[in-house]
Write a structure and sequence with these properties.
The protein is mainly alpha-helical. It is built from six helices and three strands. Strands 1-3-2 form a three-stranded antiparallel beta sheet. Helix 3 packs across helix 4. This is DNA-binding MarR family transcriptional regulator.
Length: about 140
């Protein structure tokens, strides 16, 4: 059972992390024309290589119809490819296009550059060491079920 001290830590940490994530999302001019769901689908395709539309819909907790519209928009921007499955002609395999991969790399580079600059400008060497040490426990929180 969490103690009062852990409750206070959680209450302080949550808004700071949320604001940092929002700030990183806003800082990417390369991502301005995409919704959060569209960005999430691109990341899933980057992680998994290729997926079916139905798999993406389940992962994003969307209806198949909504996912179809989202994928149509990404396709119109040339960020994904659609290929008929060799095993089942009724299924369409979705993957990142070359432009989609480049977009993800550009966004990550923009965010990494900003964060690196912010860390070096705003944090002392001691604070940078604290941030480095915080990566492991923060990773545990991300992976906690």
């Amino acid at each position: 059972m969490p103690s009062r001290k852990q409750d206070q830590l959680a209450a302080q940490l949550r808004p700071v992390l949320a604001r940092l994530v929002r700030k990183l999302r806003k800082l990417s001019p390369a991502n301005e024309d995409l919704s959060q769901s569209e960005r999430s689908v691109l990341v899933l395709l980057d992680q998994h290589g290729q997926l079916l539309s139905a798999e993406l819909a389940v992962m994003e907790k969307m209806t198949p119809q909504s996912m179809g519209q989202l994928l149509q928009h990404l396709f119109s921007l040339h960020l994904i490819t659609r290929t008929i499955s060799p095993d089942d002609k009724r299924k369409i395999i979705i993957a990142l296009s070359k432009a989609g991969k480049e977009r993800i790399e550009r966004v990550r580079k923009e965010r990494d550059e900003w964060l690196s600059y912010a860390i070096s400008s705003a944090c002392t060497p001691e604070e940078q060491a604290i941030l480095q040490a915080a990566i492991a426990p923060l990773s545990k929180l991300v992976d906690f079920e």
